[in-house]
Amino acid sequence: MLEFEYARSAYKNGLRLEKELGTNPYKFGLIGSSDAHNSLSAMAEDNFFGKTVPQEPSPERMLATFVDNKETGVRIMDWEVGASGYAAVWAEENTRESIWDAMERKETYATTGPRMVVRFFGGWDFVAADAQDRLPAYVGYTKGVPMGGDLGQAPQGKAPTFLVAALKDPIGANLDRYQIVKGWMEADGTLQAKVYDVAWGGDRQPGADGKLPSVGDTADVANASWTNTIGAPELIAVWTDPDFDPSERAFYYGRVIEIPTPRWTAYDANFSGTTPLGGTRMKLQDRAYTSPIWYTPAQ
């Protein structure tokens, strides 16, 4: 991962700056949006209207060049442009004031296009039975803090526990897995990160190397379709950090990944009969990212 190019890198550097400065300038939430310039918000793979007017739907658009800078040598093809994304906000009511308050407290998440429903709570007292409750938000707010929240000094002998839940987009693809991404700073200032699989669809089990097998692939590129015969419509679990050190600053955020589905290039090719250029990416796994929950030990 390139330094300074991704949110995870900023989150990690924020831990170091907090120790040095007494405040974390990179304690921000996440939303999904798009750098589009055509006054449209059609960002789903099956309804992508491009980033600028020349990239609006046509039989030629995925064969064209998006950027060709002779001075820098940077060349980007239209097919390399992504069709994301959307912002999700957990507001108490559908009003400007309530939505603003939710964004201020960072109770937000990003998706790359699907309208999946994602919950992420952290605390010290979640237990496995909480994942069986049909009101996970009630349990989450009662026992912990939501995405965007903070956890202070750990109680003696306890590690943080997380209640995670996700529902698929009602007209979208099933879910492959729910992951928690952890970043932390060791005593010597070294910054680390690790991705944990905490819930997944199917009867898969992690292998000897600890890695979860692939969910499979039902994407039919030629016909721009897929089947929900793999994955799961819902994922919910309670996870405890097995590597927790109460003296180390850390952050945790959720990442939900769908099963493979056709990319907008596959929909274009199917609709217009265009033959893609060699190397054109035709499938993807859409996903969502929650705002983090930060752990800060007592000074």
Please summarize what this structure is.
The protein is an alpha+beta fold.
List the helices and strands and how they pair.
Elements lengths: L6 H15 L43 E5 L4 E4 L8 E4 L6 H9 L3 E4 L5 E7 L12 H8 E3 L3 E2 L9 E7 L7 E11 L5 E10 L33 E7 L9 E9 L2 E2 L1 H9 L10 E2 L2 E4 L2 E3 L4
Parallel strand pairs: 7-16
Antiparallel strand pairs: 1-2, 3-4, 4-15, 5-6, 5-8, 8-11, 9-10, 9-12, 12-15, 12-16, 13-14
Provide keyphrases for this structure:
alpha+beta, 299 residues, 8-stranded mixed beta sheet
N→C terminal distance: 30 Å
Question: Low-confidence spans: pLDDT under 50, at least 5 residues?
Answer: none
What's the story with the biggest beta sheet? 8 strands, mixed
**Dominant shape:** globular
Q: Helical region count?
A: 4
What is the residue-mean pLDDT, rounded to a whole number? 95
Number of domains: 1
Strand content: 25-35%
Tally of DSSP β-strands:
16
Broad structural category: alpha+beta
Subunit arrangement of the protein: single chain
Helix content: 10-25%
Taking all Cα atoms into account, the compactness measure Rg is 21 Å
| SSE arrangement, N to C | HEEEHEEHEEEEEEEEHEEE
